[in-house]
Design brief:
Number of domains: 2
Structural class: alpha/beta
Radius of gyration: 16 Å
Strand content: 15-25%
Number of helices: 7
Distance between the termini: 32 Å
Length: about 220
């Protein structure tokens, strides 16, 4: 099990993703000089990943995963699909939301199609960075259920990185601890005792478009 580093239980919101990225980079300052690969979960975390990569002198790339949405509530992640098409299901949440096996299979197939679309968009603009033997930091806007980050960590782990870190500005305490089963270290700047939606911890949490994310990657 990896180490969990929760910096604060404060619930104060960040101004925006840039401010959050700067704070995250400061907390990860000890990684400077180690040429880390910063993997951002698109689209929202890509601008934040750029800030972290620049501050640490690392390489920026994306890790393409999709969450499995609950029946009638697609924003609630009951699992996820990795870039290579593997489905990871939170069986407890699936049962609570009455997600049948047929539903899970259909939802997984739908998300695999979305992953293929994302691969065409992002990999055409930015070839994948090899992870074997590298120090890898996966960055997201926040840890809610953790389903997407778990898939991202499992996908990255399959490439045998030297060290694998999950990092986010905000997160649920239970999720931070659960992610330690998949990462060598989990870093979360703010993990309040009550955690709602990730967006509640940002004053500006506007959508990031494909074109905005692609522009950031082209500049990497």
């Amino acid at each position: 099990m990896g180490h969990v580093r929760i910096v604060s239980t404060d619930s104060e919101a960040f101004l925006n993703r840039r401010e959050a990225g700067e704070a995250l980079a400061e907390e990860l300052e000890d990684l400077k000089g180690q040429n880390p690969v910063i993997l951002a979960i698109p689209r929202g975390a890509v601008p934040m990943g750029r800030v972290v990569a620049d501050a640490l002198g690392g390489e920026l790339d994306v890790v393409i995963v999709r969450k499995l949405g609950a029946p009638g509530n697609p924003e609630l992640a009951i699992g996820s699909v990795t870039e290579d098409g593997r489905a990871i299901v939170n069986r407890e949440l699936a049962q609570l939301t009455h997600a049948s096996e047929a539903y899970l299979q259909q939802e997984a197939q739908r998300q695999v199609q979305r992953i293929e679309e994302a691969r065409r968009v992002f990999r055409g603009a930015h070839p994948k960075v090899p992870l074997e033997g590298r120090l890898v930091v996966i960055v997201d806007d926040g840890f809610a259920t953790g389903a997407t980050m778990k898939a991202a960590l499992q996908s990255a782990r399959s490439e045998n990185p030297r060290r694998l870190i999950a990092a986010a500005p905000v997160g649920a305490q239970d999720t931070c601890r659960a992610l330690a089963d998949y990462a060598d270290e989990v870093v979360c700047l703010r993990a309040p005792s009550f955690f709602g939606a990730v967006g509640a911890f940002y004053r500006d949490f506007g959508q990031v478009s494909d074109e905005e994310a692609l522009q950031v990657l082209r500049e990497a």
